[in-house]
Please model this.
Amino acid sequence: MSDPVHLKTSPHLRGAHSVDKIMRHVVYALMPICLFSIVQFGLSALVLILTCTAVCVGTEHFACRLNGRPTTVGDWSAAITGVLLGLILPPSFPLWMAAVASVVSIGIGKLFFGGLGFNVFNPALVGRAFAQAAFTVPITTWTPAMAHARFKEFIPSTFTFPFAAPPDLRPWMERLQIDGFTGATPLALMKFDYVDTESAKLFVGTVAGSAGETSSMLILLCGLYLAYRKMLNWKIVASVLASAAVFSWIFWVKDPSVYPTPLFTLTSGGLMIGAVFMATDMVSSPVTPLGVVIYGSIIGVVTVMIRLFGGLNEGVMYAILLANAATPLINNLTQPRIYGAVRRKKEVKA
Amino acid sequence: MHLSAFNLSQFFGGTFSHGIHPAENKHFTEAKPIERLPFPAQLVLPLSMHAGKPSVPLVRKGQEVVRGEPIARADGFVSVPLHAPATGVISDIRLMPSARGPRVMSLILDVYPGDPQEVLYGAPVELDALSPKEIVQAVQDTGLVGLGGAAFPTHVKLTVPEGCSIDTVLINGCECEPFLTTDHRLMVEQAADLVKGTRILMRVLGAKRAVIGTETNKMDAVAAIQNVLLPNDTVSVKAVPTKYPQGAEKMLAKALVGREIPSGTFPSAVGLGVFNVATTTQMGQLMPMQRGVIERVVTVTGPGVKRPGNYIVPIGTPIRWLLNRCGFDGPAGHLIMGGPMMGGTVSSLDTPITKGCGGLLVLTEHQLTSEEQMKRYPCISCGACVDACPMHLNPCELGRLAYKGQYEPMAERYHLNDCFECGSCSYVCPAAIPLVQYFRIAKSSNREKVAKAS
Amino acid sequence: MNPGSFSAIFLDAFLINNFVLALFLGICPFLGVSGKVKTAGNMGMAVTFVMLVSSLCAFGLNHLLVKFELEFLRLICFIAVIASAVQLVEMAIKRFSPTLFRALGIFLPLITTNCAILGLALFQTAREYSFVQCLAFSLGAGAGFSLALLLMAGLREKLELADLPGLARGAALSLILAGMLSLAFMGFAGLGG
Amino acid sequence: MSAPEKMNLQTFTQGLWKENPVFVMMLGLCPVLAVTNTAMNALAMGLATTFVLICSGFLVSLLRKVIPKQVRIASYIIIIATFVTMADYLIQAISLEVYQALGAFIQLIVVNCIILGRAEAYASKNGPLKAVVNATGMGLGFTFALLCLGVVREVLGGGTLFGMQVMPDRFQPWSIFVLPPGGFFVLAFWLMLFAAFEERKQKKGVTA
Amino acid sequence: MSDIAQDAMELPPQPSPFRLVGTLGGIAVLSGLLVVMTYQWTKPAIERNQREALERAVFSVLPGAVRSEPVEMTGQTVFAGFDEADRRIGFALESEARGYQDLVRILYGFDPDRQKIIGMTVLQSTETPGLGDKIIRDPAFHANFEALDVSREVEVVKSGAKTEAWQIDGISGATVSSQAVGQAIRRGAELRERVLAFYRGDQTNRTDQTNLTERGGQP
Ligand SMILES: Cc1cc2nc3c(=O)[nH]c(=O)nc-3n(C[C@H](O)[C@H](O)[C@H](O)COP(=O)(O)O)c2cc1C
Ligand SMILES: Cc1cc2nc3c(=O)[nH]c(=O)nc-3n(C[C@H](O)[C@H](O)[C@H](O)COP(=O)(O)O)c2cc1C
Ligand SMILES: Cc1cc2nc3c(=O)[nH]c(=O)nc-3n(C[C@H](O)[C@H](O)[C@H](O)COP(=O)(O)O)c2cc1C
Ligand SMILES: Cc1cc2nc3c(=O)[nH]c(=O)nc-3n(C[C@H](O)[C@H](O)[C@H](O)CO)c2cc1C
Ligand code: SF4
Ligand code: SF4
Ligand code: SF4
Ligand code: SF4
Ligand code: FES
Model:
């Protein structure tokens, strides 16, 4: 019997989770959403998601190599960024622009700050926000869901030549005899024309929108799985959704003819995917129990504020980025009261 | 959540908030009655197996000692005497490896083989006749220290600081560490001695009541204790939810009586005295006869041993001998003295069992979640550690500061010194950041700085 | 919301056309004093305060200049009067509230003549704001500046503990952060329209 | 700064590169970011600032013996404000379009610390000729920095340069570059580029 | 600048205060002189520039106009435009509405005879370049204002959906900016009424064109 060799300090046990495992499961949870997106928008959605994922992972890999460090793609977080980015772009988005957004996501959004764990903003949203400011028209160009030729041909703008502007989609839609499609998402219809969309349709997701944002039901289910596996902070999701619902309810009660119902608010646009998958990015959200709720509420309220009163018809992305920016302050202000703290203060006073 | 007026903790199942639920793994030994092993040929008795000043030897090399005889005396108040755990001869006094690492001065006792090993020392005392001060002295003479692990001299804890009065004694039978079952078996098998010891503690401290606290995974212990309690007894037993680290005195105080021990103070600040089950049981056994601590129950467990069990062994038994008895023959395994959450690995199998050691845990190679095997990542701010820390600290921020070597702000702004190193944060961290290790380094660096400054 | 109303002007200067993030005014103090949250908070207070004082001074002064048809001396007068007014107020604060002075103290002289302050005076004159509108404008601009400064300081404090790549050290980091904040603030565009 | 007596090439080039007010000293950043969405605006702003730098440097240097120490800053500010007001009117007279594009930033030249800094650190200690030469260098350095931003922002953000189309017809402009965030990003980009450049130069210097 | 500013204000009177005040005063006088000189010298050029800019704007919204005259309508100035034969083509009216980023100020030509808008130009906007700023020069958008019926409420519709004379085809991707222009035109309805009233009154006792100038015009 020889002497033990492993000298280490306590604790000697570890919980079941590890970073790569959590990240991998998030990718799994995103797969049904990707699948639905492809069913709904066809080949263009498929290549869009693949491009974003490949470019994100590739950027991270080559940047690590360039710096002479071992590659960090094994932690799967770059893959999440890529898949999510693909899911929040319009299906018709030209691939070269998606690639630019991916490089910005990983390059400026993540690696610039030191990589995994140090980025202060949600990388996928950094990429999208950049794209939204750079390519404003393509990123607000929508195509109809369930177009009948979606598995036979790509949307013409998908393979736009790099650095060129995408072609006008109207002739294509006319050829496909997509009549009456105004190119508007339910949110835009609501905002500019006060046209409501059936909630059932919104819930299932057979509406126009970003590739993966449309089915709030599916997103919620995938989120529930992750929450059940304790891989996502359900408190963030709950506070985003609750605050958005309450805030929009206040206006809806005031004037139902102009303002949408809380249900519409929750199920339309990117709120659901934002709340479930993007607000919950651990790196850029607070850690304290109270901070998490404040963070979620900021997102919910700012989203509704932008949707109802802003120039844009969607505000989830900006709301999350703003809340990301406020995260360090929130963390600072909501340090937990430690066990045994208050009484001591009293004692000191007395 | 702190709301002492309502005592909200009572609503939430009567426990503290946060904490973790590691797999209990008590099945190896929890049903195994305490078993007495034969004496080893040689005992190693470190002079400092307790917190405080080392004892001073009363014997010379080559001197014969009788089981139960004092062989070292206390050196001052925060120190305890040492009694011979067996009849034999002091063959040497020299430096020996210790559980804490550095070699310490130890008495080597060669046990006489075939000796009946009767305890001849000690005389019955009428405890009721003694003044509290005399009882404290009597406790010191038994050499009792906290058997829950800290090995802090028990008589010091019985000396209530000026201005405090103790109304409640809490007996800590949580044994929240996975694997260990020492206290559990003691409560089941020696409930009478436990309650006797409890009453002695109450009398010394002038407490009006006592609560024996255990976890819901030890309901047989609750039944056993209830059996020996009187109707309307001032001693009661209560099972609180099973959760780590329920056994930490701060958490227990919160769970049992809803009191928070203020940061930087002892339980006496809120009228409590907290003692471990093993300490209290020995108190009940030793005090009436004025004997000394010469043996203790040790759980030897884990998948790495063939015959896990709860063994009563003389203090000073070398681990190598004990492990041999229990069927540990493997290659170098992962040997932990104490529980998996707070215990330390031992550097040498010649380390002896000391008063504070309640368990030996042997994990096998493949269970070894060592840092080399578990890939380490940067902190991803998941907040799992924040939700786990029973002291409601912010291990995430502490860890990030420690990573950059900013030790002072850790203490100044993030309450580093309130961390009692329970390991809950490291346990849950998906990035496998050695948080507790960081915190130990930070604390000692800060201590050094303070020492240098003064 | 009526574009000229108090709340519209406040909101505009606070979020939509944030002085730092959208109009690029006061970049130097923004980059210089955003290292620590605490300092940033005090700086924000000081700037808001100075903005209020100089906005009101500029409002009064402009009336006089218009009355005597001396508009071509506007710039020279503005800068002189604002600097002196802040100096006077600083002395008054030092006298009457040493605590407040300690909080704002060192920042006051630093910001008296930065471009956010003068810009505020020039913009409100160009837009012909009334007294109440000036009030809303200066408070909104101050609040917006403080918000941007606090967010920036929080981020920079957090990033002090990060493994920044060599390229990202120094001013480039602050500028990228500012760019990101500016990008996020674009979400407020058209708010209340 | 102890003023070197002899005037040499450095008097002029100092501000262009080694002590470039924007890239090295990080001064006067507001106009750098605010008015560089087109190269034309950048050029106009740069020239206006250069004009004020030269004129105020000249006058301050002339009067350096007359102005008592105690009132020098007040005097400098008045002098600078004077030239800024003049520049303001001159630009209005030359082109209303440029004037409108630059907005209040012309008048904000008053608080640009490059100018006061130069007046205080150089012009008040040197003869008029040297002051003018140095101010010209600084002004051109500033203009150069503005153009660096303006060119990138206009070409990428609009596909044009000085209003003329330089990119192919089908080029998709990246509008972010003419928007506020783009200003920050492009400046950060230039700073990183120069930092990398300096680093490489230093490395070479070490090995050589 | 901190100590700099402080120095400037505290002025410890070591040299004779007269000298300090004198120097400052001297510099102030010099500065005043320089400014006034520049002001006087550039004034004609600036005024000409402004007038030209205004005229360019007025002419651009009143196709065919070669001369314009300001007309004071209670509280607001409008411009009447005349063609080569000195016939009045219409009036140029200003209006504004909130756009995507900030206020959008427009000037449009109004033909009271036909109750139509005959031209539009954006005076001021900070809409997004490449997107919202298409309202400034997108020819397709401007085609909307060659003959826009304002006898009833103007409506902005999706790009390509215009069917009626009172509708404006929006710019795709810049709905907000397009709406702002529509809104500004709707807001001008009241002013148009007044112009109309003025115009009718003007026509009834119209003798010659100068009448107009005498009534409301300013030199
Ligand atoms: C100087 C000193 C005085 C102490 N006094 C008391 C006391 O009055 N009451 C008490 O319960 N424990 C007292 N302790 C012991 C601690 O409260 C605690 O039981 C010991 O540090 C181990 O605790 P742990 O096993 O929870 O870590 C004292 C410890 C020291 C170092
Ligand atoms: C994290 C942590 C867990 C602990 N768990 C237990 C426990 O389960 N049982 C126990 O008796 N003491 C436990 N302790 C020690 C107690 O805090 C306390 O020191 C002890 O109950 C005092 O009794 P003693 O002096 O008789 O050992 C724990 C301490 C810590 C810091
Ligand atoms: C960076 C950015 C700039 C924008 N600028 C404008 C703008 O100048 N004018 C405008 O109407 N909408 C602007 N938008 C708003 C969007 O294009 C918005 O989706 C659009 O107004 C909706 O119109 P649509 O329904 O025709 O797509 C901008 C959006 C972003 C992200
Ligand atoms: C629940 C969860 C949500 C995530 N959401 C995002 C996200 O919205 N965007 C993103 O880039 N990465 C996301 N990630 C991946 C990872 O956290 C991210 O790449 C880090 O921010 C990179 O440092 C997510 C990871 C988890 C576990
Ligand atoms: S010694 Fe370990 S197992 Fe025993 S009570 Fe303390 S922490 Fe729990
Ligand atoms: S080891 Fe310290 S910081 Fe970590 S959970 Fe335990 S008490 Fe909290
Ligand atoms: S558990 Fe680990 S990864 Fe998560 S916040 Fe804490 S230290 Fe960071
Ligand atoms: S004077 Fe102050 S605000 Fe202006 S550039 Fe210098 S440091 Fe910045
Ligand atoms: S603050 Fe320095 S130029 Fe604006």
Q: What stands out?
A: DSSP finds seven helices and eight strands in chain E.
